[in-house]
Write a structure and sequence with these properties.
Blueprint lengths: L2 H21 L1 H16 L3 E6 L2 E7 L11 E6 L5 H74 L8 H25 L5 E2 L1 H8 L10 E5 L6 E2 L3 H16 L5 E9 L4 E9 L6 H13 L3 E3 L8 E6 L11
Parallel strand pairs: 5-7
Antiparallel strand pairs: 1-2, 1-3, 4-6, 7-8, 8-10, 9-10
Helix pairs in contact: 1-2, 1-3, 2-3, 3-4, 5-6, 6-7
Keywords: Kinase, Transferase
InterPro entries: HisK_dim/P_dom, HisK_dim/P_sf
GO molecular function: phosphorelay sensor kinase activity
Length: 322
């Protein structure tokens, strides 16, 4: 091949490769066809993947592909030796572009299917959320009426109660409360998060504060599910760490236990070798605890521990066994 022509082909292929890299394989194929027309002086060119014309350029009508595979076709047919060499090199690059285009088309089709599936799942989720909300409302409304009448009867609004009547009302009130808890558990929107991994991560030996204090952590041998999202509970644990760090204690003891009758987790935190906690860190911890539906008791002079309570997600009533 003439050196000048060879350099022109190399320059054309470099431009096509850059175009395909920047704009995709189809843009690269369009530029390749234009360069083919320029280098071969043909009136038209087309790229075939099997019997399917993927891209074409120039004038005239492309004849049908007679064979399978991926090929570059020009018209009128070029019979010169140099044209054959140019077409051979361009065809090799065209085959790579067609393969890349097939992969891109498959990826786009897969993405379209995934997007359609996601939209269908979102529609189903919205429909189920609406059903959940309606079911929870329909179940809670008559239960509220029942509890209202039970409260009035227990307050003596309907007259004095005998011991037997009082006992029956107590049982009915407990059943109503259990039913409300069951409805909230089955149909509630709130999420639950395990507190144990967050405590181990925050107070473990690999944390940056491990060299400043010694930590004794005692937790139940079970999942400590708290009615909170992961982000909410992570913020709460960070506030707990900052509050304890503000005491500059050399030793921290954390003990977590379940108060099953109250359906809550009780965390007792005691410190040694420090001072009173900072006001702002403790206020932040108290605010986040209250947002989670819990309570906090501040440490008092004399070594009394911090006591924090968080609502537990134990499942339906009677299902809180370990």
């Amino acid at each position: 091949m003439d050196p000048t022509l060879d350099a022109g082909v190399e320059q054309a292929l470099a431009a096509v490769a850059e175009r395909a890299l920047r704009c995709g394989s189809h843009a690269g194929m369009e530029l390749l066809l234009r360069e083919t027309l320029r280098l071969t002086e043909a009136s038209g060119a087309a790229l075939y993947d099997g019997r399917t014309c993927v891209a074409r350029a120039g004038t005239g009508v492309a004849g049908p592909s007679s064979g399978g595979g991926r090929l570059l076709k020009v018209w009128p047919e070029r019979t010169g030796r140099s044209d054959g060499q140019v077409l051979e090199r361009l065809s090799a690059f065209a085959s790579a572009l067609l393969a890349a285009h097939a992969r891109e088309s498959a990826a786009e089709a897969r993405h379209a299917r995934l997007l359609a599936s996601r939209r269908e799942q979102e529609r189903n989720a919205a429909s189920w959320e609406q059903r959940r909300s309606l079911a929870a409302h329909d179940l809670r409304t008559p239960l509220m009426v029942i509890k209202g009448y039970l409260d009035m009867m227990m307050k003596g609004t309907a007259g004095p109660l005998s011991a037997t009547m009082q006992r029956y009302l107590d049982r009915m009130m407990r059943s109503a409360q259990d039913q409300r808890a069951l409805i909230d558990f089955r149909l509630g929107r709130g999420s639950a998060t395990d507190l144990c991994p967050l405590l181990h991560s925050a107070f473990g030996p690999d944390t940056k504060r491990a060299s400043r204090w010694s930590v004794a952590l005692a937790v139940p041998d079970r999942a400590v599910m708290v009615k909170a999202s992961p982000a909410q509970l992570e913020a709460w644990v960070r506030a707990l760490v900052r509050g304890l760090a503000s005491t500059h204690a050399t030793s921290v003891t954390l003990q977590l236990e379940l108060l099953e009758p109250m359906r809550c987790w009780r965390l007792a935190a005691s410190t040694e070798g420090g001072r009173e906690p900072g006001e702002r860190p403790f206020m932040l911890l108290g605010e986040l605890t209250r947002r989670l539906g819990g309570s906090v008791r501040s440490p008092a002079p004399g070594g009394h521990p911090w006591v924090l309570q968080l609502p537990a997600e134990l499942g339906p009533p009677g299902a809180s066994g370990s």
